[in-house]
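Give me structure tokens for this 170-residue protein.
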Amino acid sequence: MSTKRDRSVLITHKTTDTSPESALDDLDASILRYLESHGRATNFEVGEAIGLSASAASRRILALESSGAIRGYRALVDDRLLGKRMTVYIRVTLERQSSTVLSSFETAVRRCRGIVSCHLMAGQYDYMLVARVAGIDDYGRLHQNGLSRLPGVTRIETSFALRDVLETHA
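Here you go.
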């Protein structure tokens, strides 16, 4: 490996949030930005990109993992290759927004297979769920065996994506 830095990959150290809640310094923020798009990078590659040695990059990455800033690593898989060709948006209204109802719903939705994200919303609906399913029959099973059994739900509205145009995970 070359020790010469590739300037096209070099990340500038931008100023991060200076509020007391922010525990990241500029180098940590640069590491996180780099790993978002280069998750399989070696410590050497991370160090080269942000201007650190491999050992210094390694120490910082371990600290970011220990602090929870890096929650894990995963492969982004094309769901279509696994037969999940349809994206479904599900708007959920609960009977009320007490902490007990919210907590109960959130605990149950985490166990609901097929749901890939869940968001507490402001506005007309309480939650927006996103599901990936094989097709309408698969969604029917999800609705019957999962969604309709979620606690506190009074209304479910569903929309189906005609085509996924853009999806990023960074």
